[in-house]
Design goal:
By secondary structure, the protein is an all-alpha fold. The chain contains 7 helices and no strands.
Amino acid sequence: MAWSAVSAFVGLVLVLAGTPKLLAPRAFSRVVRGFRVLPGALTRPVARVVPVAEVLAGTALVAGVAAPAAAAAATALFAAFTAGLVVNLARGRRDIDCGCFGFTDPPAGEVARIGPWHALRAAALAAASAALLLAAPTAPAAADRFQGACLAVVVLLLALVVARVARVVDRRPTRADTHLADASVRYRAALARTAR
C-alpha cells in the first residue's frame, strides 16, 4: 500500500499543478518565459506540452495505469522544475512566479517570489518519482491502489491546510508593511517636532 500511496500522492500533485496551467495557457506561458532558461522560440511549445504531460502522468499514477512510463514522465518533469528553480535561485532571481500550482496574485506592491523551499519540494517530488520508477511494484492489487489513493488524498489535504495556515500566520513584514512602518516613524517624528 505504501507504494500505491506514493504513486497516488505524486499523481495528485501533478494533476493539481497541471490543471490551472491548462486553464490559463497564456499565464503559464508568461511564467515559463519569466524563468529565462529556454530560448524564446521554445517558450510557447513547452508551455503547452508541460500541463498536458502533468495531467496525463498524474492521472496515470493515480489510476495505476502505465505506471513505469508515468513515473518516468513525472521524474523528468520534476527534475526540469528543480533545475529551473535552482538556476534562477543561483542567479539571484527570486522575484518570479513559480507557477507551481497555478499563478499567484500577490497583494498590491508585492511580487511573486521563489525560494529554496520551491526547489527542495520539486527535488523531493523528483526523488519520489524516481523511486516509483526504480522500486515500485508494477501491478499492485486494486485494494492496495484504493487504500493508497485514500491515504494520499488525506496527506495532500493536510499539506494544503498546513500551507494555507502557514501563509495566514506568516508575520514577516512585507514591502507594504515596511513602507508603512517607515511612513509611521516619519509621521510620529513630524508630530513630535510640531508639538515643541
